[in-house]
């Protein structure tokens, strides 16, 4: 017989303490259930907020679309233009194939390390790249070649660039002076012919125009980045600075965006006191050297397309040998704007020489020499070394096996200086 039938206790089964505890725990709300209820409550509260936020964003997008319409491609614009628009005809008053003549400078640009011939001359490749970056080609004007050949080459170009360097006397000075006078004569005759003069070029033009070869003063401005301080109330209309964005123009006066590398210059006072200089040029900017001595840094001719820089616009983008050359994006823009202005002036030249003569004299007929491993000076140079003669017998001073001399290919067989 089952035991519960024998018991005197009520017929309801006895509940253990542990069972009672279990029953009690089941009857109370759990912690997880409370959390779930709270989450549901917050969800209900967030819904109206999100709806309101969505409405605000929709209104904001609508307002933005009204005030700042999206940028559309030409094909997305609703107009009546043909589906395949034609390009406008080129301006017949402009020359879209300009060529710039660059005057070579005595030496090899590397203190004789590359070529020690006494008649060697060079053009730093940075000047060539400077011109090419704005859409022009280059013909080298070799300073010590026969004058008639030099002037024949002038007939092939649409502008001239005088580079930096050190030579202020002798044949180089005489050649630069002859070219400059010829350029002025052509402009006087109605033929637009621009000139850029950089560093030494600035100094030589100062000497030529002032008619005073002792007019320059000494300055401490080697390997120096500097600002350009514009003259008060100066108008930049029609000058090299005309196309500069306003922000970049302002930075020229506050940031060191230009490269100075010279021992000589001229103060604004001395410049203005010389009647020839002050009547020919107007001063655009001044700069200060390491000793805070002020000198004229940019000038433009009043009646000719001639601009001269005491600073180096070409170095920012194309030279790496000096530690203080600025290479920031703003500095590169300075280089590009200055180059663009020069070539835009050259396009106004209507001189269109025979294409074959131009091709025969382009600097592409020469190869640049890399000299940047020395860690100073130029990175690349074009060297021009005409054969020297002795007793009517041609000899060569350390020539390469194959070299282009003034458009003539010369092949040599030895390097001893013997006739070849």
Automatic annotation (TrEMBL):
InterPro entries: Class_I_gatase-like, Pept_C26_g-glut_hydrolase, Peptidase_C26. This is folate gamma-glutamyl hydrolase. It comes from Populus deltoides. Its EC number is 3.4.19.9. Residues 1-36 are annotated as: Disordered. It is an enzyme of class 3 (hydrolase). Pfam families: Peptidase_C26. The active site is at residues 199, 312. Belongs to the peptidase C26 family. One of its GO terms (cellular component) is vacuole. GO terms for biological process: tetrahydrofolylpolyglutamate metabolic process. Keywords: Hydrolase, Secreted, Signal. It catalyses: (6S)-5,6,7,8-tetrahydrofolyl-(gamma-L-Glu)(n) + (n-1) H2O = (6S)-5,6,7,8-tetrahydrofolate + (n-1) L-glutamate. The keyword Nucleus does not apply. The keyword Repeat does not apply. It is found in: Secreted, Extracellular space. Residues 1-16 have a biased composition (Polar residues). Residues 24-36 have a biased composition (Low complexity). GO terms for molecular function: gamma-glutamyl-peptidase activity.
């Amino acid at each position: 017989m089952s035991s519960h039938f024998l018991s005197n206790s009520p017929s309801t089964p006895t509940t253990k303490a542990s069972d009672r505890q279990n029953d009690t725990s089941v009857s109370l709300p759990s912690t997880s259930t409370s959390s779930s209820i709270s989450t549901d409550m917050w969800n209900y509260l967030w819904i109206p907020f999100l709806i309101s936020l969505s409405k605000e964003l929709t209104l904001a997008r609508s307002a933005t679309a009204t005030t700042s319409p999206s940028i559309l491609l030409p094909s997305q614009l609703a107009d009546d233009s043909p589906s395949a628009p034609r390009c406008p005809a080129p301006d017949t008053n402009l020359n879209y194939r300009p060529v710039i003549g660059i005057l070579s400078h005595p030496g090899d640009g590397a203190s004789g390390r590359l070529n020690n011939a006494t008649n060697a001359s060079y053009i730093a490749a940075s000047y060539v790249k400077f011109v090419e970056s704005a859409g022009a080609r280059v013909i080298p004007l070799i300073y010590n070649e026969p004058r008639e050949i030099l002037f024949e080459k002038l007939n092939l170009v649409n502008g001239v660039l005088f580079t930096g360097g050190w030579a202020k006397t002798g044949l180089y000075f005489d050649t630069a002076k002859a070219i400059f006078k010829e350029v002025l004569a052509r402009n006087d005759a109605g033929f637009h012919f621009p000139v850029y003069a950089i560093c030494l070029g600035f100094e030589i033009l100062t000497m030529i125009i002032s008619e005073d070869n002792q007019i320059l003063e000494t300055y401490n401005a080697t390997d120096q980045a500097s600002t350009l301080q514009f003259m008060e109330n100066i108008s930049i209309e029609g000058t090299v600075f005309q196309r500069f964005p306003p922000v970049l123009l302002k930075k020229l006066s506050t940031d060191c965006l230009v490269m100075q590398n010279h021992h000589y210059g001229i103060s604004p006072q001395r410049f203005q006191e010389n009647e020839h200089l002050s009547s020919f040029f107007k001063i655009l900017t001044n700069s200060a050297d390491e000793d805070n001595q002020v000198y004229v840094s940019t000038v433009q001719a009043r009646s000719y397309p001639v601009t001269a820089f005491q600073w180096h616009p070409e170095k920012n983008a194309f030279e790496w040998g000096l530690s203080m050359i600025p290479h920031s994006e703003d500095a590169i823009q300075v280089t590009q704007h200055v180059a663009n202005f020069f070539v835009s002036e050259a396009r106004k030249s209507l001189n269109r020489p025979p294409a074959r003569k131009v091709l025969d004299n382009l600097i592409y007929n020469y190869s640049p020499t890399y000299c940047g491993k020395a860690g100073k000076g130029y990175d690349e140079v074009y060297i021009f070394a005409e054969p020297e003669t002795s007793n009517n017998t041609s000899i060569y001073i350390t020539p390469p096996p194959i070299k282009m001399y003034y458009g003539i290919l010369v092949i040599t067989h030895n390097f001893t200086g013997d006739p070849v």
